[in-house]
Specification:
Helix content: 40-55%
Number of helices: 40
Distance between the termini: 86 Å
Largest sheet: 5 strands, parallel
Strand content: 5-15%
Structural class: mainly alpha
Strand order of the largest sheet: 5-6-7-3-8
Number of strands: 12
Amino acid sequence: MEWLIPPWGARLPAHKIRVYPGGVSVGGRDPRALFGSNDRGIQVEEHFTNRQEQWEAVTDALAEHVRTVAAPGFDVEDLEAPRDNVLVFHGVGGIGKSTLSRKVEAALAHGEHRPTQWGEPVRVTGRVLPVRIDLARSAGTDFERVVLTVRLALAELGRPLPAFDLALRRYWDHVHPGESLEEFLRRGGLGRRFGKTVPQQMQSALADIAQAVLLPGTVGAVVGQVTSSVVRALRDHRASVRALAGCSRLADLLEAEPDLDALSYYTHLLAWELARLPADRAVLPVILLDTFEDVGDRVHRDLERLLQRVVWLMPNAFFVVTGRSRLQWAEDALHGQLDWTGPTAWPGLAVPSGPAADAASAGPAPRRQILIGDFSAEDCDDYLARRLTRDGTPVIALDVRAVVTARSHGLPLHLDLAVQRFLAIRRTGHEPRPADFDVDFPALISRTLSDLTPDERHVLRSVSLLDNFDVPLAARAAGMTYEAAALRLVERPFVRTDPHAVWPYHLHAVIRSTIRTADDRADDRWSSGDWARAAARAFDAIGERRAAAADGDRDLLVNCLRQGLRLARDFGLDLGWLAEAAWSYVGDSVWEPLAPPGPAHGTAPRTAADALVETLGALGRRQHEHRESTVARLTAVVDSGLLPPELRDMAVYYRAKAERDLGRSDDSRHGMCLVADGGGRLAPAARRGLAHLARLAGDFPTALRTAGTLGWAGRHHRILGDVWWVQGDMARAARSYEAAREEAEQHAVAGERATAQAQRAFTLAFADPAVAEDELVLAQQLLTGLDLRATRLTTRIAALVRDAGAAAAGLEDRARVLRAEAEVSGITAARLTLELALGFHHAVLDDRDRLTASLGRLRDLVAGDYAYYPDLVCFMAGRPLADGRPSRARWIDGEETTRARWRTLVTVRRAHLLGI
């Protein structure tokens, strides 16, 4: 017969669930919150938040298990077949594992307790009997109580289980002489939970067995004799014990010493009894083992061994385990510590393909081990909105919920603690405000540390200083010469894995924040000196990894810089290896965002680390900020005097570049001269800057001569290209940019390579649109992953030049968008080049009015520098210069030659568009 989960008409025992973060109780009220306020108008509801994926995992695994048990070849006495009858949910403390366990039990026992978002129940064959066992130390559950709980739950069958009951009674009389099982169950609360049926069933079973082996007297007085007689009858194959003879291992189990070890093997008898139930009485036990982390540590596995034995010996039962850590049963390394280990024994608990994950790769997730994830922002808000209500309206305001949600990073325990804080603040007579919840909760520390060894705690605090780490780095940051504690720590669920990161491990965000900032009252809490020493160790360890890395490992460089800068800033460390790393960062001209989280810029730097953070932060942010902001930030750094001379040159040089972009040529020239005269690392770049400034002033011969002295360090080929395209000599300029790109490739400088290629595409866009198309594609490819705002603007302006004269290109609309972006960036060169491109477009179309408008915008923009840009538009259109004067620029080949080149570019494009 096919049944629903739970079966129609079945009323199996579901026991009242108390509130836990993110959960619901059958009773629907939360006593803690209920007594948290005198305001009786507040409805304190225990709200369960989603977890639909976990429920689907339960039902899918349960349906698969039912098919396995029903298969023709299934044998409950087969001790060698692999086991797939366990499903594990693991996650950080407070994520809602116990809540999920309770809810699954309630949903399996009573259909009406299944949340509506879990959908319709699935169909399985047989009757489902859920029994949940809390293994928490506070619950006082030992292995004996585990076995008794399972047997007591099976009393629902309404019939004895003679093989198991005989063995259990023998065990009980041996281990608890003079103490009746009935009295023990009554005192321990199990009798109230399950009733008094089991002792009666056991007594009935033993009486029947005694009669079968022809023993007179009461069962209680002759249980030992009954056992001996049953063993002899089984050995002699007597017909009187035919009902027990099918259990091939019963006689051996009855002869074994009746201790705790034997009790664990008796569960095989339970499985055998369940397997021989008639079809109309068949039952599928679903045993939920919660708080599995409390069975012991990972060195002493005595209780874990017994529990694993139960799972293995009851293959027709299904087990749902919830705990902080995944089960390690599928690891061969545990051979000898547990009875059955390895991926062959537990295929569902093992990584499905390839070797187990190591420090370099997270690997695929085991099929039957599921990490319980954080709540989404929507789930967090839903939980908080429904938790406290008045007349159906949320008591916790939306702005407060938003702050709590952001601070929680999806951890349900944080949400629950925030609700308690909300009620506590209301008791003071104040209305809770968002700022009241921008805090961490120390209770999270105790929950996180509770089952860690002292060494693991030490490593955890050390790696809380790091954004990400691997095992060797964690051990080194903790000052340990061995990695065992770090290896154990990375298996904990609050350590997340990203196989694509430079170092694969990072702490759960709210756990990390709490450990770093909350009031730690643990016995082994750290002093400020402990934190400072740990920061110095971590800083040095990161520097060692940076020094050992291969040249060109940009990801590692940026990762090291981000973490090292934050440590140096927060703990006042000397710059050390950061100085050299900073030079490597600027040398590639990639400009990933680099400033670590912390105080907003604008705060005056107090240490060299502060100044370096602000410098590199300004350089990265200049791709997204107006150049005025860049100048202001770098000026504050320079004025602080905190950086050593070479790094101060860095701030001066890039400030001078930003000033040039803003059109402040005199200020830029002063900064470039300071750096060039200093003879430091950036002196060649500063001389290149002076050559640029000469070009902007129209002094092209000086720029050309200077380029010949710069070499690769001064990017000589790009300087030549910048000079030649203004002369209208696009072929020579394109060759220079190509040489610059190739030289950058040889030196593995990605930013310079992309910039040179973008400039090459720009120059060729004037001369040959078809060739320019391919060059633009290459430029876009080289820009992938780079943060170069000015260069991206260049490629988009180049696309306008390529399309110049085409009426259907929507060029005017594209230009308006680009003009706005260039104004926001504060890059004067981009604004001027855009107007130059528009002038080319209007010249090709011979649109005199719009050409005049472009000339007007150009003349408004130029002020000293770039004064020759309006001249270039006049050259294109064949117009005389303003007021008939000659150009003030010093052209390489003279004004007439330059004019002819630009006019030819226009006429050739016009002919191309006309098909001539």
